[in-house]
Write a structure and sequence with these properties.
2 domains, mainly alpha, 15 helices, 335 residues, 2 strands
Length: 335
């Protein structure tokens, strides 16, 4: 049985007739005066285009100094390195004679590829360790410290090591802490765990990796701290109210929201440790090689084309590594 009355049906018909009449009038105007309609629409489109053009120009002018800076100090040196890698080495440097021999020497160099693999392994270990040790620190600062003032104070305290030179921190790690007579070996001997110093705590691969983790962990803590600070607290409460335990809440709620921070921190640490040579030289005491030390050695020996070719392959490896890391999160959509 219908609930509508004749009055309601009559009103609906009148409204439909009015709407149809307005559409008919609009069509009639557009047919009789097409130029006026096109002119009005064109004026609106031209105004919109002019606004977009001015906005694009302002954006371009704002970004121009940054593009010039990056082009001069980043893009141009990389292009020059690529060019030098194809030139011929001489006793005084190189000449502009094109050759593929530099890459041929590297491709057949067991030392280079062994160092490349060790550098890659060191970078992967550093990324994983910094994530494991850095996530709890960032979580505590962002989620457990209540007041903003205390958060900032503790975060600045965590950044304190960055107030000194990177090389000074590497030296400070090496001699007082590591080494056969360093603090670690002395402490282990003092409590009776060992009787002779552990050589692995000296100028070794282990010392380099442990030191790199300590030197670069803040590059993981910082983006994680800012991402965890933006986690929606209501979503955490909702997940707990729905019966989620700590692990499920972390996996389903916290981790997806902090994944961009994980990716950004991983990229920083991977790129910086993969090409590291200064800390490897100091902490490794000349006993540890990396791709960075090979490039630096060839440049010191005036083997510029070979050093440039080594650097180009390192850049290619970094690009592949960064591309693989970014597959774990869509930064454009999640940030």
């Amino acid at each position: 049985m219908s609930n509508s009355s004749p009055t309601d049906d009559h009103l609906k018909k009148e409204m439909q007739e009015v709407a149809l009449g307005e559409l008919a009038e609009a069509d009639e105007v557009s047919v009789q005066h097409p130029r006026d309609v096109e002119k009005a629409l064109g004026a609106d489109l031209s105004v919109a285009r002019e606004r977009n053009r001015k906005a694009a120009m302002v954006t371009f002018l704002w970004g121009l100094p940054g593009f010039v800076w990056l082009g001069f100090f980043l893009v141009a040196p990389v292009v020059f390195i690529v060019l030098v890698s194809f030139w011929t080495r001489t006793d005084s440097g190189f000449v502009k004679e094109w050759t593929l021999g530099n890459y041929g020497d590297i491709l057949h160099s067991t030392t280079y590829w062994t160092s490349m693999w060790k550098s890659f392994l060191t970078s992967v270990i550093s990324v994983a360790a910094c994530l494991v040790f850095g996530f709890p620190v960032a979580y505590f600062l962002a989620m457990k410290v209540v007041t903003l003032r205390n958060q900032i104070a503790l975060f600045i305290f965590a950044l304190a090591p960055f107030w000194t030179s990177f090389l000074i921190r590497a030296v400070a790690w090496t001699y007082p802490v590591a080494g056969r007579e360093g603090a670690l070996n002395q402490a282990l001997k003092g409590v009776g765990i060992i009787t002779d110093p552990i050589s692995a705590l000296g100028f070794s691969e282990l010392s380099v990796r442990v030191a790199l983790i300590q030197l670069y962990i803040l590059f993981m803590v910082t983006p994680l701290f800012f991402m965890l600070s933006q986690v929606d607290r209501s979503s955490l409460e909702a997940a707990r109210d729905l019966g989620g335990n700590g692990f499920r809440v972390f996996k389903e709620v916290i981790l997806p929201q902090t994944m961009p921070g994980v990716v950004i921190g991983s990229i920083f640490i991977f790129v910086l440790t993969m090409g590291e040579y200064g800390s490897v030289r100091v902490i490794g005491g000349g006993n540890v090689q990396s791709v960075g030390t090979i490039v630096q050695t060839r440049i010191s020996n005036i083997q510029y084309p070979q050093g440039a070719a080594s650097a180009v392959l390192l850049i290619a490896a970094l690009i592949i590594g960064v591309f693989a890391i970014t597959r774990f999160a869509n930064l454009r959509e999640e940030l």
